[in-house]
Amino acid sequence: MSADASGTLTIGGDLTVNRLGFGAMRVTGSGVWGPPADREAAIAVLRRAVELDVSLIDTADSYGPGVSEELIAEALHPYPEGLVIATKGGLERTGPGEWPRNGRPEHLRNACEGSLRRLRVDRIDLYQLHSPDRDVPYADSVGALKELQEEGKIRHIGISNVTVQQLAQARSIVDVVTIQNRFNLTDRRSADVLAACEHDGLGFFPWFPLAAGDLARPGGVVDEIAARHDATPGQVALAWLLVRSDVMLPIPGTGSVAHLEENVAAAQLELSDEEVEQLDSAGRSAAS
């Protein structure tokens, strides 16, 4: 069992990682708020991810807030060679389940510097703008990350929750290397953004990757394919994403070692061409 089986993606020309990452949102407390109920279990998940050759861990200053980044540093610092810690800024937390946007340059600067401290690094390998803020010109938010990059605090820049137009605008300001949008079997509204990433060789991190909706119900196409492979519906959903595009890097998250191992095992699940077509067709119908 190894994330090596997912293949690799090179980010920004110099960071090569396995194409099955880990999303560290769920190592925090309930509602992505506060510390986890079992701190040692959360640390065990992070360490096990690295043991399974996961080489990209995605987090954000808003997860906790701050808790996810602190746990990553506690569990893994000094970081092993080849491990990329990607984090994000641009959201605030005013309570459990509350995620107000804040794309003001001064906030992004403070957020980045806070992440540097919590992660115990001098430079963040991949720093992502979490979401456009309707109250702040997008160029101002992206420009703030460019300044931080020029100061040596950010190695590469990514953006999240964007349209094709916002991607183009961001790329006119700075070199964008990754995009993180919601994408899964039944939600393909970012297919045009994925296509742009494929055209230009940008990494695409689909969030909420395990979702399969009614397709995973007993008798559904995902359930049937999973049974055929002695797999779970979630594993089928991940395997489909990996075969869907060479620039795809799913980042499933969990607070359980057993669930982490289940997700990583999906990298070894080989879908037939017919099964891929079945999933494509069923997912398009479910999304329409």
Task: Provide an overview of this structure.
The chain has 288 residues and is α/β, with parallel strands linked by helices. The protein has one domain: NADP-dependent oxidoreductase domain (TIM Barrel), CATH 3.20.20.100. 39% of the residues lie in helices and 15% in strands. The protein is built from 10 helices and 9 strands. It has helices at 39-51, 67-76, 105-119, 138-150, 164-171, 191-200, 221-228, 233-244, 257-265, 273-287, and strands spanning 8-11, 15-18, 22-23, 56-58, 84-89, 124-129, 154-160, 176-182, 203-207. The chain has a 7-stranded parallel sheet, with helices on one face. A two-stranded antiparallel ribbon has the order 1-2. Strand 5 (84-89), helix 3 (105-119) and strand 6 (124-129) form a beta-alpha-beta unit. Helix 1 packs across helix 2 (67-76), helix 3 (105-119) packs across helix 4 and helix 7 packs across helix 8. The longest helix has 15 residues, at 105-119. 49% of the residues are buried.
SSE blueprint:
Layout: E1 8-11, E2 15-18, E3 22-23, H1 39-51, E4 56-58, H2 67-76, E5 84-89, H3 105-119, E6 124-129, H4 138-150, E7 154-160, H5 164-171, E8 176-182, H6 191-200, E9 203-207, H7 221-228, H8 233-244, H9 257-265, H10 273-287
Parallel strand pairs: 3-4, 4-5, 5-6, 6-7, 7-8, 8-9
Antiparallel strand pairs: 1-2
Helix pairs in contact: 1-2, 3-4, 7-8
